[in-house]
Structures are given as structure tokens and as C-alpha cells.
Write a structure and sequence with these properties.
In chain A, 0% of the residues lie in helices and 50% in strands. Chain A is mostly beta strands. In chain A, strand 5 and strand 6 form a beta hairpin. In chain B, the strands form 2 sheets. In chain B, strands 2, 4, 5, 6, 9, 10 and 11 form a 7-stranded mixed β-sheet that branches. A 4-stranded antiparallel β-sheet of chain B has the order 1-3-8-7, with no helix packed on it. Classes of the chains: A mainly beta (113), B mainly beta (116).
Chain lengths: 113, 116
């Protein structure tokens, strides 16, 4: 079945450091790819998405590029802030199953000032 | 993200009791999803419903768990005879339509169930 694999955390960075969170996927079709963020005590919020190969999703300084050849969707940010501390989830959605999302296990990001 | 309302936010039950979790989707959304997040894990799909219909319940345990989304009122996730392993955060999400062009789900803040 479809699956998403994320790098294990927690990832601890100093403010203004460069962030990469790796995400790779396995899917039989052509999924849409997403990054969701969960701040402490809250539900998930969509951070960015890409619906086809080579698309780049971006939001709030975060970026991720849909790489079909490497089945990856790595999340990057050039300069993290303390307020970026959260859990980040990579996910995919297979069109034929409606809007069902398959999530990775999540990566905890801690940013220190 | 605002707009999907879940209640209660926190629920404590003793083993053997019933838990009922409610979810009101965003206005105009007729597709509802329930996900479960166990401690230290990602979200796992449980069930996908449209008004009065269960579309996909492949992630739902076969026993003790049920879900509904009536014509009027919120969606309900019901867990009978709860056990400690049911302790988790249960998230509801809604979407405007089925089939992905964006695949974007809007999540509620979750209901955290603790079974003593």
C-alpha cells in the first residue's frame, strides 16, 4: 500500500539555521503531496502542497518540490524561527481514494533562540 | 483551519465506558474524515463519510468503533467499552468535495481521549 517515510526527529536547530526535513513516498499512482504542521495543542494545518511532478509548494518561507524521479518531497526553510517549533507531517493523497491522506510519522522541530 | 469544531476537547473515561466524539465540519463541507493519533505516532485514517453514508471505513477497528454523519447535526465517532489502548487524539477533518484537485482537508483541534 501507499506509504510515507519521514526523517526521524527531534530536529533541534538554532534560530536562523537552515532546515531540511526529508520525506519520501511510495504510491502506485500519481499522488498529490502535502506538508502539514501541528503546533502544540492544536490540530493540523496545511502548510503547502504540490499536485504534480516538479511543482514547488511554498508558504511562510517553507518550500518543497515534488520529485517524481526520487519519490521525494523534502521540506526546506532558509532561516528558521522559534515560532516554527512544531511537528511537521508529510502526507500524500491518492486521487482514486478521494481525499484520504496517508501521513508520515511526523518530525518534531525544536528551534532554540 | 478554523471552522471544524470538535467536542469535547478532552474526555476521560474508565475502562468499559462509552466515548462519543462530535465533529461539525466547516460550513458547506459534506465530506468528513476521522483520524487517530496515538502517542508518538502520526495520524492514521479511520473512516470517511458523506452525509448519511460511510464511504470508506477501512481504517476503523471492526469491533467497538462506529461512525455516523447524519443528514442533520454533527458527525459522531462512537467507541464502546473503551480500553486503555483507545487513549489517543482523535482528529476530524472536512473537505468541500471528493476526489483530489487539491486534496486539502481542514482539521479540527482534536479530541483527546484518556482511558483510565
Amino acid at each position: 500500500g501507499d506509504s510515507v517515510t519521514q526523517m526521524e526527529g527531534p530536529v533541534t536547530l538554532s534560530e536562523e539555521a537552515f532546515l531540511t526535513i526529508n520525506c519520501t513516498y511510495t504510491a502506485t499512482g500519481y499522488p498529490s503531496l502535502f506538508w502539514y504542521v501541528q503546533y502544540p495543542g492544536e490540530g493540523l494545518q496545511l502548510l503547502l502542497k504540490a499536485t504534480k511532478a516538479d511543482d514547488k509548494g511554498s508558504n511562510k518561507g517553507f518550500e518543497a518540490t515534488y520529485r517524481k524521479e526520487t519519490t521525494s518531497f523534502h521540506l526546506e526553510k532558509g532561516s528558521v524561527q522559534v515560532s516554527d517549533s512544531a511537528v511537521y507531517f508529510c502526507a500524500l493523497s491518492e486521487r482514486e481514494y478521494g481525499n484520504k491522506l496517508v501521513f508520515g510519522a511526523g518530525t518534531i522541530l525544536r528551534v532554540k533562540s | 483551519n478554523a471552522g471544524v469544531m470538535q467536542n469535547p476537547r478532552h474526555l476521560v473515561r474508565r475502562r468499559g465506558q462509552e466515548a462519543r466524539l462530535r465533529c461539525s465540519p466547516m460550513k458547506g463541507h459534506s465530506h468528513v474524515y476521522w483520524y487517530r493519533q496515538l502517542p508518538e505516532e502520526g495520524l492514521k485514517f479511520m473512516v470517511y463519510l458523506q452525509k448519511e453514508n460511510i464511504i470508506d471505513e477501512s481504517g476503523m477497528p471492526k469491533e467497538r468503533f462506529s461512525a455516523e454523519f447524519p443528514k442533520e447535526g454533527p458527525s459522531i465517532l462512537r467507541i464502546q467499552q473503551v480500553v486503555r489502548g483507545d487513549s489517543a487524539a482523535y482528529f476530524c477533518a472536512s473537505s468541500l468535495r471528493q476526489g483530489v484537485d487539491t486534496g486539502e482537508l481542514f482539521f479540527g483541534e482534536g479530541s483527546r481521549l484518556t482511558v483510565l
